[in-house]
Amino acid sequence: MAKTEIRLATLEDAKEIYAIYEPYILNTVISFEYDKVPLEIFQERIRKISFQYPWLVYTIDGEIAGYAYCSLHRERAAYAWDCECSVYIKDSQHKKGIGTALYKALFELVQAQGVYNIYSLICVPNEGSVALHKKFGFTEVGTYYRTAYKFNEWRDLLVMEKHLRETEGAPGKLIPVNELEKDFVKEVLKKYV
Q1: Does the global pTM surpass 0.85?
Q2: Whole-angstrom Cα distance, residue 49 to residue 10?
Q3: Name one GO molecular function term (predicted).
Q4: Would you say domain 4-171 falls under CATH 3.40.630.30?
């Protein structure tokens, strides 16, 4: 039986994570990037995001099969309690529950950090991604029509949102992921594999 694990990503994972991401850049409209990303730049993305939010990897026998992370939704201070989520699965590992497991752990961690709202921006049509987000209680907020140009066509971007808590009164300070209690983080990561 295969050994599965969800854990926090490290900079040493960048090459393996990027190997999953690159086909999304080069072959799909799921990513709006056009070109390959140099490894150093991709490592810097992981470092910058992981400073504040969880970046999780799902491994099977030590090999990364998928990853998910939350990142800053908007830069202005008043948006500090919102984040944006992303999940990418290795092509050979789709339809095995990896995205669901990653999202369960990811959303529990960001809720513990004090996040109120999670957003997902999806190039449509993308029935699989829309269904996954609806499964987690995301609702459609609106669409940016013909907002991105890739593969010789203008693309629409669906915005979905999920509320993690009621927005009454002033929010508390957002806790960086590395300041969450270590035992709590370990428990969450073990819970969903």
Answers
A1: yes
A2: 11
A3: acyltransferase activity, transferring groups other than amino-acyl groups
A4: yes
